[in-house]
Design a protein that fits this description.
Blueprint lengths: L15 H7 L9 H19 L6 E7 L2 E6 L2 H9 L3 E4 L4 H11 L8 E6 L4 E7 L4 H12 L5 E6 L4 E2 L7 E2 L4 E2 L3 E5 L2 E6 L1 H4 L4 E4 L2 E10 L5 E5 L17 E2 L7 E4 L7 E14 L2 E9 L11 E4 L2 E9 L4 E5 H8 L2 E2 L1
Length: 338
C-alpha cells in the first residue's frame, strides 16, 4: 500500500468460434494489459450467459484468464457449452450461495472472523482466526455448520488488522495511508482512500498535495474515505502510469494488480467476493479477498486490473488482503474517476 498519487467496466448468442477468437491471447506470454483485456472480455461474456440460466446459474470464475460457468443442471450446462464456455456441474446455485452468505451476516459481534463467496469451490468460505475468542469461534462455527456443504470453515493463524501506520504516503501527521484513486464530483477534484484512515481526521498531505480535508468517512460497514484535493485534479492513473478509465466488480480467479506506499506494486488473485470481514474496528461488508501481499501503510491503496479500478485496501493478514469495491465507493459518494 504505497502512498500513491494515484487514481487510482440481452444475452447475445456466442458461438464457440467467436469466443475462441476473443480469447486468442496466450495467457503465458500476454502483457499485463493484454491479459487484463482478455479477463475483462471473459467476465463480460460469461456474465451475459450466466444471467440467462436462471436457477441453473452457479456463478462464474476465471481459470488462467478464461471463464468457467458453474451450472446446477444439464439444461444449463448444455446452454453454456453451446455458447462456447467450459462448465462445471455444481450443487449450489449462486442465489443459494448468496442466501447462505446472508445467513452468516446475521451473526454479529464476532471479531477476527470473515465469510464470503468462493465460486470456484461453490461454497461460502468462513475464516476463523486463532486470535478470536473461544466464544466467537464456537458461535461462528455453529452458524457455518447449519449451512451444511454450502459452507466450509478455514482456521487461520495470526490476526486480521486494518493497515494504518507511519510511512511516506498520504498522512495527517500521525497516521499514514495510501491514496487509492483520484476522483471528481460536480467537476471538483477529490481523493479516495480507506474510511478507517479518514476516521482519524486531521489534515492530510502527500506528494504534490497539502492541506487536504476529510469530506466523508465511512467505516465500519463500508470502508470509504473522501479527501479534498486543494491543488487541482490529479491524473486518472496509477503512479506506474497505468491509466484507470472505469470501475468494475471483481471476479473469483481474476488476476489483479495493487499499489501501496509500504509494499509498492504487486499482483494477486481474487479468492472471494461479497465478503463480510469482522475486523476489530467492526464488520466491513462487501469486501473482496485476494492473495496480494500488503502491509501497514498500504491502507486505501488501489487494486486494479488493466484499466479497470477494482477497490481500495482495507487490510488483512499474512495470507489475504481485503479491498472495498470501487463501484460501491463511486456510487455511494456520487463520484467519477478523474
Amino acid at each position: 500500500m504505497t502512498s500513491r498519487k494515484t487514481l487510482v467496466a440481452g444475452f447475445t448468442a456466442l458461438s464457440a468460434a467467436a469466443l475462441t477468437a476473443g480469447m486468442c491471447v496466450n495467457a503465458a506470454s500476454a502483457s499485463p494489459l493484454a491479459f487484463a483485456k482478455m479477463q475483462a472480455q471473459a467476465i463480460t461474456q460469461a456474465t451475459q450467459v450466466a444471467d440467462t440460466l436462471g436457477a441453473g446459474n452457479g456463478g462464474i470464475y476465471l481459470e488462467r484468464g478464461k471463464a468457467v460457468l458453474n451450472v446446477t443442471d444439464a439444461a444449463a450446462q448444455e446452454k453454456a457449452k453451446a455458447a462456447g464456455f467450459a462448465t462445471k456441474l455444481v450443487k449450489h446455485s449462486f442465489t443459494a450461495l448468496t442466501s447462505a452468505k446472508n445467513q452468516m451476516d446475521t451473526v454479529k459481534n464476532v471479531p477476527q472472523t470473515s465469510w464470503g463467496i468462493d465460486t470456484k469451490t461453490n461454497q461460502v468460505v468462513v475464516k476463523i482466526y486463532d486470535s478470536a475468542s473461544q466464544a466467537t469461534k464456537d458461535k461462528v462455527a455453529a452458524a457455518a455448520a447449519k449451512l451444511g456443504d454450502a459452507a466450509r470453515v478455514e482456521h487461520r493463524s495470526g490476526k486480521l488488522a486494518t493497515y494504518i501506520a507511519d510511512g511516506d504516503s498520504i498522512n495527517n501527521g500521525q497516521f499514514t495511508c495510501s491514496l487509492g484513486f483520484n476522483v471528481t464530483k460536480g467537476g471538483q477534484p477529490y481523493m479516495l482512500t480507506a474510511g478507517h484512515c479518514t476516521n482519524e481526521g486531521g489534515t492530510w498531505s502527500g506528494g504534490d498535495v497539502s492541506g487536504a480535508q476529510v469530506v466523508q468517512s465511512d467505516c465500519p460497514g463500508a470502508d470509504s474515505g473522501l479527501l479534498t484535493r486543494p491543488n487541482g485534479t490529479g491524473p486518472g492513473a496509477i503512479n506506474t502510469g497505468q491509466k484507470i478509465t472505469s470501475a468494475a466488480s471483481p471476479t473469483v480467479g481474476e488476476q489483479i494488480e495493487k499499489m501501496g506506499q509500504t509494499t509498492g506494486g504487486g499482483s494477486g488473485q481474487v479468492t472471494s467476493v461479497d465478503e463480510s470481514v469482522n475486523f476489530d474496528v467492526g464488520v466491513l461488508n462487501h469486501e473482496f479477498g485476494t492473495t496480494a501481499h500488503t502491509d501497514h501503510g498500504d491502507s486505501g491503496g488501489p487494486a486494479y486490473d488493466g484499466e479497470k479500478g477494482l477497490g481500495t485496501l482495507s487490510g488483512g493478514d499474512t495470507q489475504t488482503s481485503y479491498f472495498y469495491p470501487l463501484t460501491l465507493e463511486l456510487q455511494s459518494y456520487g463520484l467519477e474517476l478523474a
